[in-house]
Design a protein that fits this description.
The protein is α/β, with parallel strands linked by helices.
Length: 683
């Protein structure tokens, strides 16, 4: 039940953050390492934005300051995640290679002075990133401080798509490789529509801004191409490092906060998954979005422990309203990530910057210094993590999978969909939140994955669905699984073309329904849904719930009606259906239900799947990490009052033995080592 450590040189849960000593005078470095030791820091990320200070001009390197820094950190027992600084090329690079600048969709050449400014298709940029990655790896491959390599920074943020001439040329090459011929390209893109047929490869360009909506299949392919190009840049640096170095190599994702990269594909390229996560201040329950990001990070890494590469001690600096974290919130956030599989808890950044765009971003050493509440909480968190070292390598297991498909999201987000209120993020949050409140831990998965180990699979927003993936979901139900599908799913194939047979046709067998017509609601309109009383009187409702955004005209093909619309464009039509198929059950939710309606649906779904909600108080987040001989129950209380947890064992943060149940303090966290019990598998 353990996974090998991605950094054997560090025992236990790693702790630290981004360290940018190049922003400070040399005497500050000695103070920094002393404070790091006080806080329990044992891993820092170095050099991520230091290209101009390492390669001072093309092909000319100055390693003296970095040599001194790594030696200093090593003497003080602090390990290094060494970054390649390729997210921020120097001024001299753009002066020599002006054609490497990114061009926006409306044709504007992007200027210097930010980060992420280079075209991922530029040959000059590709050559430069390999050169500096190679130089760093050759010099520091055997340095005893270096335990991890950190390529680039947050690929696709802030720049993903590039519409430059170099990108257009690379796009044509990628399309030739993908489609093989112009005839195949024309068929995939449906170019007979609006007379867009291509007769020469040179006529194919990037989907730049146009007078009306650009071909959606072209735009979907361009999103795939963008992801591919970014990943090729990563591979180039990774392979350059691997020529010299044996340490694991990663790059920091932004799970649940950036959509430009297909993290399922990226997860196969890195040695260990790492993620940056920042609370969205406008969300009063940001802990739920945090849990989504943590579960997604673990899932794209195949369930192995992962690295929280960045989060914040308090407020960030780039949101409309940058809300500070309240006392204790930093520890709750950190330990929630750890509960969901993180074996390293790192922050951006170590010391708050006095200059630059992020000077108002919080840090482990804030502008207020070591007399501040934030610093005291940083030191306290380091002590807590020391007590949790035995969790390193333990894993999280789940009985439920929620489908998460980046390509489907890219397609659904294009223009001219049936309603602006359709949102994949909204549906994923709604279903995930229901599971979270019911205490059910989930994995994320693709519709083509092996789903046989899960009792329940939820498809909140699967607009794009390949025929083979639909067949996989159908087999899953036929062989005994429980599947829940939300509206506007199974609509198009991989080319954004409506499936032959109509909306939802690939899942008709598993769900027992077909969608004849979309019936979107006007903005602000709310309707009522009746939950059945019994099979003989489906309109004698047990309850009535509110719906908005969406109705559908559904034709039944074997499914039973569980709930109906009482009014609105779908009045009298099914709103929720259930279909026994093979050994399993397929549920279809054809409208956007309120929270109580979704709770009622999921209660019946759980019964079909043989899953029982935990019964924990609302706001008490409980996740179990499983080891070889013990389980570790992590309970995070997001409430303003104590919450009762049923558990027996040793509470590691206090060293207290607990029996049967105890109270987790308001805003507090508990971690209980319990006796390992056998666990039933699959369905």
């Amino acid at each position: 039940m353990r996974s090998p450590s991605p950094w054997p040189a560090i025992r236990g849960i790693a702790y630290g953050g981004d360290y940018t000593p190049e922003q400070w005078a040399r005497e500050t470095w000695d103070e920094d390492v002393a404070l790091m030791r006080e806080a329990g820091v044992d891993l820092v990320s170095v050099g991520i934005f230091a290209w101009a200070l390492i390669e001072v001009e093309e092909g000319v390197f100055d390693f003296a300051w970095l040599d001194e820094l790594l030696d200093l950190l090593h003497r003080n027992g602090i390990r290094v995640d060494l970054g390649t600084p390729t997210a921020s090329p120097p001024a001299w690079f753009f002066a020599r290679h002006p054609d490497a600048r990114v061009v926006s969709r409306d044709g504007v050449v992007q200027g210097f002075g930010a980060r992420g400014m280079a075209s991922h298709s530029s040959p000059a940029y590709r050559e430069a990133i390999v050169r500096i990655a190679s130089a760093l790896a050759e010099r520091y491959a055997d340095h005893p401080a270096v335990v991890l390599w950190h390529v680039h920074n947050e690929y696709g943020v802030p720049v993903g798509e590039d519409y430059s001439a170099q990108s257009a040329e690379a796009f044509r090459g990628w399309l030739r490789e993908r489609h093989g011929s112009l005839d195949a390209l024309n068929a995939a893109w449906g170019t007979a529509f609006w007379g867009q047929r291509y007769t020469d490869w040179e006529h194919v360009g990037v989907p730049a801004a146009a007078p009306s909506v650009v071909n959606p299949a072209q735009r979907l392919d361009f999103a795939r191409f963008t992801d591919h190009q970014l990943r090729e840049c990563f591979r180039a640096e990774r392979d350059a490092i691997r020529r010299f170095a044996s340490q694991p190599i990663t790059t920091n994702f932004m799970a649940n906060q950036a959509w430009v990269a297909d993290l399922w594909a990226w997860g196969r390229e890195v040695d260990v998954v790492s993620d940056d996560h920042y609370l969205w201040s406008a969300d009063p329950e940001g802990e739920i979005g945090l849990a989504i990001a943590a579960d997604l990070s673990r899932s794209v890494g195949g369930g192995k422990p992962w690295i929280l590469m960045e989060h914040s001690t308090s407020a960030v600096n780039w949101q409309p309203r940058n809300v500070a974290k309240r006392p204790g919130e930093m520890a709750r956030n950190s330990l929630a990530h750890l509960a969901r599989g993180a074996d390293a808890i790192l922050f951006f950044q170590w010391r708050a910057s006095r200059s630059g765009a992020e000077k108002f971003h919080s840090a482990m050493v804030p502008h207020a210094g070591t007399t501040s509440r934030v610093w005291r909480e940083v030191v306290d968190l380091g002590a807590k993590l020391d007590r949790l070292d035995e969790l390193q390598g333990t894993v999280v297991e789940a009985d439920v999978a929620v489908l998460w498909d980046f390509e489907s999201f890219w397609a659904q987000d294009l223009e001219w969909r049936p309603s602006d209120d359709l949102s994949h993020a909204d549906r994923i949050r709604a279903f995930y939140e229901r599971l979270w409140r019911d205490g059910i831990t989930v994995d994320f998965a693709l519709p083509g994955h092996d789903l046989s180990k899960y009792r329940l699979v939820v498809a909140p927003a699967q607009y794009l669905l390949r025929a083979a993936d639909a067949a996989n979901l159908t087999r899953y139900v036929e062989q005994g699984g429980t599947l829940v599908v939300s509206y506007f799913s199974g609509i198009v194939d991989e080319h954004d073309a409506v499936h032959a047979g109509g909306f939802g046709a690939p899942l008709a067998a598993a769900l027992g329904v077909r969608v004849e017509e979309f019936l979107p609601l006007r903005e602000g309109v709310r309707t009522s849904v009746a939950w059945r009383g019994d099979d003989t009187a489906p309109l004698a409702a047990d309850a009535v719930f509110t719906a908005d955004v969406w109705h559908e005209a559904i034709a039944l093909e074997g499914a039973e009606v569980v709930a109906r619309h009482l009014d609105g464009p779908g009045a009298g039509l099914p709103a929720v259906t259930r279909h026994a198929y093979g050994e399993g059950v397929g549920w279809y939710v054809a409208t956007r239900l309120d929270a109580e309606g979704l709770r009622t649906v999921m209660d019946d779904v759980y019964a079909d799947a043989g899953i029982a909600p935990t019964g924990h108080p609302d706001g008490l987040e409980v996740v179990t990490r499983r080891g070889d001989a013990a389980d570790y129950v992590v309970a995070i209380n997001h409430r303003d009052e104590p919450a009762r947890l049923a558990a027996s064992g040793l509470e590691l943060l206090t060293g207290t033995e607990v029996v049967d149940a105890f109270d987790v303090a308001a805003g507090g966290v508990a971690v209980v080592r319990t006796t390992r019990e056998p666990r039933g598998g699959g369905r």
